[in-house]
């Protein structure tokens, strides 16, 4: 399936040690990083056996995730799922990881909010400007930068974080 996106070097499907059945995820190594990025863009959320696949770059390849722009989307309708968020917010720019609807651990129902992480602040700013206050599935949503986990009351998108992102991007180009 992944050969459609580019030349594949290797595939690894982890198996359960006891049952020897696959664990529902896998790793695909492409010849070039460009091929891998193309696979993420083209194959993400394509249905396989009736379930949408989540395609991400491996954690070691996500250099921008540490300083990427993370948004909080609030007041979501219970019918909203990860795929609808991907389809809606993916138009503003490349995402660092799949959108994630927060769910109740017991019932599995959505909790009314989600997170979207972009690779650039420009994409996040465009999403905020276009989507904040808009209606999604008949409910008015609010879109803003998410609070940082370790810093009390501080949100992503600050001037310092933008400066760090620009510096990191400049350093990546010189390597």
Protein architecture, described:
- The chain is of the alpha+beta class.
- The strands form 4 sheets. A 4-stranded antiparallel β-sheet has the order 6-7-5-10, covered by helices on one side. A two-stranded antiparallel ribbon has the order 1-2. It has a two-stranded antiparallel ribbon with strand order 3-4.
- A hairpin with a 6-residue loop joins strand 6 and strand 7.
- The longest helix has 16 residues.
- It is globular, with a radius of gyration of 18 Å.
- About 3% of the residues have low confidence.
Instruction: Give, in spatial order, the strands making up the sheet with the most strands.
Output: 6-7-5-10
Integer average pLDDT: 83
Low-pLDDT sequence parts: 61-65
**What is the approximate shape?**
globular
Tally of strands: 10
**Count, helices:** 4
| Structural class category | alpha+beta
Helix content: 25-40%
Beginning-to-end CA distance, first to last residue = 32 Å
Q: What value does the Rg take, in angstroms?
A: 18 Å
Largest sheet: 4 strands, antiparallel
User: Strand-residue fraction?
Assistant: 25-35%
Order of helices and strands: EEHEEEHEEHEEEH
């Amino acid at each position: 399936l992944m050969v459609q996106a580019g030349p594949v070097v290797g595939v690894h499907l982890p198996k359960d040690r006891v049952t020897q059945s696959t664990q529902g995820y896998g790793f695909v190594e492409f010849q070039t990083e460009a091929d891998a990025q193309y696979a993420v863009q083209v194959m993400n959320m394509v249905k396989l056996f009736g379930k949408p696949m989540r395609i991400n770059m491996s954690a070691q390849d996500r250099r921008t995730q540490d300083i990427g722009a993370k948004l909080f989307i609030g007041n979501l309708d219970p019918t909203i799922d990860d795929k609808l968020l991907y389809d809606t917010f993916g138009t503003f720019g490349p995402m660092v990881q799949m959108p994630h609807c927060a769910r109740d651990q017991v019932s599995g129902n959505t909790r009314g909010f989600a997170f979207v992480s972009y690779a650039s602040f420009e994409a996040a700013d465009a999403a905020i400007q276009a989507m904040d206050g808009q209606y999604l599935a008949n409910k008015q949503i609010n879109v803003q930068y998410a609070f940082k986990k370790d810093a009390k009351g501080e949100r992503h998108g600050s001037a310092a974080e933008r400066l760090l992102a620009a510096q990191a991007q400049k350093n990546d180009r010189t390597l």
